[in-house]
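anyone seen this seq b4? input:
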Amino acid sequence: MTYYPSGGTNWMLLLLIFCSNSFSENLVSVEIAPKVFVFLANNSDFLKDPKQGRSNSGFIIGKRGVIVIDSGTSHQTGVNIINDIKTKTNLPIALVILTHTDKNFVFGSSAFDDLGVKIVAHPNTSKLIKERCPNCLENLVFEHGKKMNNTRLIIPEPLSDQSVSLTKAGIQIDILHFGPAKTSGDLAILHPETGTLFAGGLLSNKYIPDLQGARVNNWLKAIAQIQRLCVNQIVPGYGSIINDTSRLDTPKYIFSLRKKVAEIYKNSKSLIDTIELARLPDFQNWHSYKDHHSKNVQSLYLEVELNDF
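predicted toks r here
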């Protein structure tokens, strides 16, 4: 199912206002394991601040085709991914898997849809994309102008709501769902042959995640399950490749912030005071600290307050 941004005359006006925006057509993947490729910082053209998060996507080449994990921020991002894949193999793209609902991971899908490629996600992700992403797309067009040209909202076909093993185009993968975590439909994609895990929204590296709406306890449990997997390397949703699965940044930040917020709350401080006092100097140089940290303080303060009643 495809949705186009609405707005009539206003929509055309927005395109005219922002038509001067530039966009890079170069996106080059890095091979991190045999036949496993990653696009690091594939949203670079959309960053307004160098301290914002850099998102990742990737693909796996099999005997008969290619599986793509996450499609990028825009139609052109998807086109750039496709063009890079063509430099690595003549095999067709067999499947696109979206790991979660994040603007930097889903809006490149229209480029794959134009090729007739099947696009899938967890059922909850499909539902959330249908419900929330039309407004998100219009916001992105307003913010980025022609960088979003030709971008359409594609509703992915729902997968099983449980973890499944799948063989497609000669590629065997495990599609892992640990229950509601960062979002209600988070998926992680494990390629057992190389021990590579695409973690989607579940893990990041030197990046402050957005905790709003998350099931934080479930999220931490999901990370604990990931650490028990046989994994050689992890492609996080944001940040550089993770090679040491025993030292993960995402739970480190969440536990540190939870402890800080709880301590401040016990001293009978208000939410406004807590936002001001709950600074974490050890994390302030991580990407998206400015964008997400204060909102995360608010989310965990409300969690502590709820548990206190």
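The chain has a mean pLDDT of 92. The longest strand covers residues 196-204. kinda curious what u guys think
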